[in-house]
Amino acid sequence: MADTPIRFGIIGCAEIARRVSRAILLAPNATLSAIASRSLDKAANFAKANGFPPEAKVYGSYESLLDDPDVDAVYLPLPTSLHLKWAVLTAQKKKHLLLEKPVALNVAEFDQILKACDENGVQIMDGTMWVHHPRTQKMKEFLDDKERFGQLKTVHSCFTYFAPPEFFQNNIRVKPDLDTLGALGDAGWYGIRSILWAADYELPKTVTALRGPVVNEEGLILDCGASLHWEDGKTATFNCSFLSNLTMNITAIGTFGTLHLTDFIIPYQEHEASYTTSSKARYNELGTGWVPIPSEHNVNVDLPQEACMVREFAGLVGNIKKNGAQPDNKWPTISRKTQLVVDAVNASVEKGFEPVEIVS
């Protein structure tokens, strides 16, 4: 579909939309067709500042963009509380949907979005970028290697960043009328996704929130964690926070091997990323070192991970448009599982940090 690129419209001028706008421009099978804001001036300024093609349309209402027949797909980076309304309308207008994470305030809302997408033959994918990085596939090959890694036993994931004072005054992630999920929906989404990814997206049996979450005056989570437990004995933990130094760690431990990386969400460099593995490690004879020592693996990429995400999504949309294919269920299924765990963490907090069973 490189000769007939998927035409994207963007609804909302959120900061993350700057990055995705660039990704759409970089992806070989996509193009920027329109931008909409509740303010026409804001939309026009966004288009100018972010290199939109001169022929891209600028709208002063979301509805106008959804009515544009020259828009194939919509990227929706609105606050989470607005996802249900605008995602459903996007699907009803037969526009394919790249939906920013977290996908909804809860899984019941997301199921309504999925129902609308299914009824209208619309492809949906969430905006979790790192899973589309070529490094992620390389790391999964190691986790799937029964000789080098063995059976997954435990995963530990952490995503934290130290937000400035103005964040707590103005950011949608700490506003109860815009996003009630706080750090859990923002940073926690990534930790939960990384755990599910390592576990082949097998849902845990129970989720238990860790005691002592930090909340703001409105009760929104600023810092929290949880433990996950599977019937076969696998375990995992994650921590997420707006109050700690920037950290993006995954450690996955198997019977024979360990995977570790410290920049899983945003690689230290855009066009190169690394990870570390060890396999069948032991102490040396005197206990003064490791044998063999862990090895570092570098992955070079031609496109940044967000452009890889757009390319993947546009490819699925192109297959529907060109070949009459059905929407691919892989990505919405993964989104729903992530949301289920987010919901379970919230439920565990509300129940006094008791284990909550996952019911898919």
UniProtKB/TrEMBL annotation:
Domain of life: Eukaryota
Molecular function (Gene Ontology), one example: nucleotide binding
Residue span(s) of domain Gfo/Idh/MocA-like oxidoreductase N-terminal: 6-125
Transmembrane segments: none
GFO/IDH/MocA-like oxidoreductase domain mapped to chain residues: 137-259
PANTHER family: GFO_IDH_MOCA-LIKE OXIDOREDUCTASE N-TERMINAL DOMAIN-CONTAINING PROTEIN, PTHR46368
Family: Belongs to the Gfo/Idh/MocA family.
Protein name: Uncharacterized oxidoreductase At4g09670-like
